[in-house]
Amino acid sequence: MTAIVVTLLASLLGSIAQTTVGFGIALFLSPVMFLLFDPEEAVLCTLTAATALSVLVLVGERGRLALDRPASLGLLIPMVPGVLLGAALLGLIDKAYLQIAVGIVVLGFVAAQERARRRPGRGGRAFGFRPAAVPSGFVAGALNASVSTGGPPVAIWLRSVGASPNQMRHTLAVVFVAMNLLTIAVVAALDSPQISGEWGRALTGAMIGVPVGYAVGGRVLDRIDRETFERFVAIAIVAIALLSAANGLSRL
Questions:
Q1: Are 33 and 202 in contact (CB under 8 A)?
Q2: pLDDT string in tens for the chain (252-residue length)
Q3: Counting Cβ atoms within 10 Å, is residue 183 exposed (0-12), middle (13-18) or buried (19+)?
Q4: What pTM was estimated for this model as a whole?
Q5: How far, in Å, CA of 234 to CA of 160, rounded?
Q6: Domains of the chain: which residue ranges?
Q7: Nearest by Cα to 149 from 117, 179, 169
Q8: Alpha helix ranges (H) inside the chain
Q9: 77 vs 72: CA distance, rounded Å
Q10: Residue 213: which region, alpha, beta or left (left: phi > 0; alpha: psi -120 to 50)?
Q11: How far apart are CA 114 and CA 109, in angstroms?
Q12: How many CB atoms neighbour CB 171 within 10 A?
């Protein structure tokens, strides 16, 4: 029962954040899962709930999707080798070091990409494929498979090319569905996770929190302006880096 309650609350808060800024469920759910389970089981549970939320966003907003398909493809192709690398690291490196690494990498992306950031275009223009998407996609795939937090590199890149709020949210949702499904398949095949009854209860709690968080997040989104949106994105990116690093340091 404890696992259900804890993961439900984490999933609820994370779903509200992701519905609003495009990513965030892993920020709340992944640290909880890493505390409860081994890395392989933690990644699978987090990514299953995150995939369900992304599908819900795409289905619920299918009539007004602001998706940039060339940009999505440019991010997804380099994610494939990134996922393979991350899944290999998952079975080799202590999870404390993995969590510290994600904090350092994400903060580095913030520093590099923030210099090039432009304000999102008000017309929702297409931004297409760009070479800078390749390292972002690769790092996102590696982080997704190793610590289930692949969102920040993609979100940072989308900000740097001037994506509008809805372009960010919808492009991230498509990327997450494809990246998460690939990661789940690779981790299940390479790392042989041990699924238990406690894991099933934790996943149940996480899945209950997803639709409730999406509904609440939709109300928040209707009342948020562009400047506030940008502030939420920046705070979420930095928070996920610091939280991951702090959690890892506490395990050393």
A1: yes
A2: 688 999 999 999 889 888 887 888 888 888 888 888 888 899 999 999 999 999 999 998 888 888 777 888 889 999 999 999 999 888 888 878 877 877 787 777 667 656 655 544 444 556 666 777 899 899 999 989 988 888 888 888 888 777 887 888 898 999 999 999 999 999 998 877 888 889 999 999 999 999 999 998 888 777 777 667 667 766 777 877 787 788 788 878
A3: buried
A4: 0.84
A5: 12
A6: 2-251
A7: 179
A8: 2-21, 25-36, 39-60, 69-90, 95-114, 133-147, 151-160, 165-191, 197-221, 226-251
A9: 9
A10: alpha
A11: 8
A12: 25
Query: How does DSSP assign 150-204, residue by residue?
Result: -HHHHHHHHHHTT--HHHHHHHHHHHHHHHHHHHHHHHHHHH-----HHHHHHHH
Could you tell me if 141 and 90 are in contact, meaning their C-beta atoms sit under 8 angstroms apart?
A: no
Distance CA 154, CA 160 (A): 10
Structure token pair of residue 177:
């569905």
Instruction: Find tokens 């494939």 and name the residue.
Output: 80
The letter for the amino acid at 45 is: C
